[in-house]
Structures
1.
Amino acid sequence: MAVIDCDVLVIGAGAAGLFAAFSAGQRGRRVQVIDHANKVGKKILMSGGGRCNFTNTGTSPANYLSANPHFCKSALARYTPSDFIALVNKHKIAFHEKELGQLFCDSSSKAIVRLLMDECAAAGVQVRTDTTVEAIETIADGWQLRTSGGVFTARSLVVATGGLSVPTMGATGFGYQVARQFGHAVLPTRAGLVPLTLSGKPLQQFDGLSGVALEVQASCGKASFRNQMLITHRGVSGPAILQISNYWQPGQPLHLDLLPGIDALAWLEHNRRERGASELRTVLAEVLPKRLAQRLCELWLGDKPMRQFDPRQLATAARLLNDFPLTASGTEGYRTAEVTLGGVDTNKISSTTMESRLQPGLFFIGEVLDVTGWLGGYNFQWAWASAHAAAQAV
């Protein structure tokens, strides 16, 4: 069997892998990309509801979780959202800002995959799908990989295999295996940016409310996010919940402000004075979805005219509205998670080049590393930035 020789071999044809490949190719490197899936960029295609939230204009290191919060700083500083926006403009891809700095394609995520593949083609990069890695070993001047598509030799090996989220898209723990093979620690992984499940009484209390959406401030410990929440038939979802899921651990209390930006006590007192004959559920339905307002009154707040609430009852109701305790039982897991928390410990990785400090010529980029962004384009920006950092060094 013929040996395919190259300067850089990238494992993983997702956002980080394809970006690193063409960036290295532009520097004159002979680059091969291999992926076990049957097509490239599967998670890109499904991202952002099919429109790909490809970056966030407000990206900063504060938007990332890692055991080493300083690790992401260098790469993010050297490849910024405006750098990627310039690339998007070069390819004449129309886009819009949805909210909070989130940029989406006007048409389809396919435009971003096409951008990456066009850049790869222009840089002479060869991309091979349906290619499974069977063995990796070091040789005198680099690497030798035995795969289902033949034997590859390379000076540099870039692992861009992502995390464990959405296994139906081909996600595996392969990158973690490679890291361990060459002496790297892998920090515990768990589903991130994921819906939360309820069980027992908390689930029963929300029974019949599936599909109800509202703006909340979701808090866990010191973390807090204000955005939409969606009640599902299994628990809660929506941007505010996905964000807080990164900070929540089983057994931890969650708190929801159902009236963010409103002092519930002052608001209730005002309505008691001005609309004493109105039922609480009627007044609440003006600021909350009607079905939720009814359920809150049935189970927690009381169902009677405003004037019948004494000061103590109003204070109790206000507390519940501004600080509703939610007991989650778990998450929907990797099946629906947008990202994987944890991963390859950055302790033995160069923050400047993404190169292993234990094995020269071995690089880890993107989601396989213990760097996880918030919801809203931050994980794509980390893919571009970490890939760019590695491509300058391979």
2.
Amino acid sequence: MKCFAFHYGDKKDEPKSIKSISGRSNSSTYVEGDMRRSGSELNSQNISDNSTDSLRRTSFPSLSQRPSNLRVFTVSELKSATKNFGRSVMLGEGGFGCVYKGLIKSTEDPPRKIEVAVKQLGRRGMQGHKEWVTEVNVLGIVEHPNLVKLVGYCADDDERGIQRLLVYEYMPNRSVEHHLSPRSETPLSWSKRLKIAQDAARGLTYLHEEMDFQIIFRDFKSSNILLDEQWNAKLSDFGLARLGPSEGLTHVSTAVVGTMGYAAPEYIQTGRLTSKSDVWSYGVFLYELITGRRPLDRNRPKGEQKLLEWVRPYLSDVKKFQLILDPRLDRKHLIKSAQRLAVIANRCLVKNPKNRPKMSEILEMVNRIVESSTAASPQLPLKSAEVSQGTETKKKRTFMDLLPGENNWFFRLWRPKLLKVC
């Protein structure tokens, strides 16, 4: 299980990640010391030579500057909760540490114990600490049904040195990536996939548009979407999140990080990060739900390794489109719904980020698909998909009309020359 896994850095034993084309800026700083004395790592940006927008950003409050319901744990408490970080309770291992299932006392009812997931960061230098600080600062101030809840943290010393741990609500149904895997014994039904698409869109809409400040996730992918006991989807792993651009600015300049196959092409080439980078990643994820395939899979034949390139020839014909649907699904009863979801994916994958819809617009489109599927009503034209660059068209369009044209991404593949695909 790859829950809560960080994908940042160039360690050989870590999952493949996108590395900065020009290297990390020397202007990047990190936060040291006790969490309660630290400033937010969200303000510590990598600044390009020709952009000063990061320097002019508004201040992001540190944990000590705001009220917080986060619990502060000791190492001994978490050792006891996780059977001394035993392998028998290990849930998974990622690039920046292991995750364990644990039991802690409830603050409301001390005799009762609640299940949690405890992430213990490895000792791999400053970067792990940066991710830890960012995670605490982000999840310490946001609260939404579709974001994994951070219960508390630990910044303590023991005989082994400095310990950095995070305690989350436990998500018993693991990650979406796990269930989409061909090895999964519990493949997701189409109705569950639509609900997951809806939940994920809600989470991103909240981060982008429903707070006084904007948070860009920057590492949206199926392994970072976890499922609770009722199969509600929640975004997790905010170690790479960044505060959005301040008023009057168009983007944030950062080092290029993320996971291969999900990162937006303009971000890879320029390092200019916007919320539309998350929108691109969401579009990739929708094709994951439709096909059951990973965005980049080196174990497949050469022509099928890159998901977006593989699906392209199948999008112009209804009969061909059926061939890309996950074979574990009942294709006859979901073809129209899947086509409509592909329309949304195509809107997200437009080459020019300015022409991609906002997450709130995407959420509205997905809501319509979910509603029509739940009611088992005839599939109606997707009205939200008729909106183009902020204006509505009166003309109804079919699925075929809404496929990307020759000037869009699918027919003019974005191939950044400076990016080496591993």
3.
Amino acid sequence: MLEATVKKILQANVYEAACETPISPAPFLSRRFNNQILIKREDLQPVFSFKIRGAYNKMAQLTEEQKAKGVIAASAGNHAQGLAMAAKLMGVKAVIVMPRITPDIKVQAVRARGAKVVLKGDAFAAAAEHAHELMEEHGYTYIPPFDDIDVIAGQGTIGVEILRQHSGRLDAIFVPVGGGGLIAGVAAYVKYLRPDIRIIGVEAEDSACLKAALEANERVVLEQVGVFAEGVAVAQIGEVPFMLVKDLVDEVITVNTDEMCAAVKDIFEDTRAVAETSGALSLAGLKKYVQQTGVEGETLLCINSGANTNFDRLQHIAERTELGEQREAILAVTIAEKPGSFKKFCRTLGKRMVTEFSYRYADSTEAHIFVGVQVKPGGEDRQAVIEKLRDGGYQVEDLTDNELAKLHIRHLSGGRPSERFEEALYRFEFPERPGALMNFLTQLPHDWNISLFHYRNHGAAYGRVLVGMQVPSGDQTHVADYLNAIGYRYWHESDNPAYQLFMA
């Protein structure tokens, strides 16, 4: 299968639509990590993503009869734009089914490239189901985003370019992983010619379908998939990609939201390009690999797979960058409720920069403060700050890795009810579309009172919502049943220390 795939890659027809993208050096990162770090710039494609390669190559294999009937796909982003452009260049009708939550900027980009857009469902699964219904009804040819050998061959041309453009030492290539089409194509070509080069897949830790499949030695379906890096938010690795990569990939690294945001900043500082979070995923994995292994003097290349991000999302990315670089510690500290306490607290910190401070009077003896402190990367300095405060007699709770604290509490801290009552706290991800909140409220039992609500728009397909509810005692054992029926992803946060310290 490997030889057949490499042959298809060499025969792939992509350059009537795609361009050969350069490899950019990353001098700042290279000096910082004592390795030569290179970035393959797929963000420079005409559709700002590598997806144009696979879409065009797949369409180039169609018969004239298939082209005459048209093509269809389900996609919320880059594959949609790649297919729309490929179809326009070939003069073929294209229908793209997109979830209703798809940001308008992406919908308009697909329409601008000549495709017909059908909005259906709140998630990709519903859009994909409708796409297959239309395919059966009209005789369209379905163009898959990753689970197809011709699509994989198109993406594999990136591997051809890498080895041609950089003929010298190359120790590892870091590839973002969603459905697996990109890593399958790159790994097949590179391993066939240069088996000494390590191929390292990088996944978001909340959508790590390849890692799960490798551990189980078979494809598995993730129960839940995170949506922050929506370009790689896939619940199951593709069947054809997995057949290839299970024997070719040397390692899979997972990274979190903050690490991706930090990588977006790193790419910008070295290239002035604004990567999407899934585009910066591979660099986040590269950095983590260097930190974990301590390698020096190696040549490491990562693929920036795309730059399709909403402008208003950059605020949230910038907000999380310092945490991703481990340059900020988020702490809950208990101090005495008396004059001079804050000054004493700052004196204990010494000359460290306080990046954030939130406080509101709640008790005559103790105050809980929400504080951000600038620290050095690596984690040791953060621990040193915590130990110094504890040695000074302070109670400290480390919230640096606490999602509730970072998404909501830092914007709400200090608000407490004047009287005690029972409250259940849940964190939700709502589809970002009109009517989503009303759907949630309508399906809650009528005698449940909402006692807390916090929402922020991050420019993504999903909004993050924090809800406090007063649940009657007779309903408490059935809360999960009610919430599961609504169908939104959620977390029970009533015992979260960030909530208990600042809002309970």
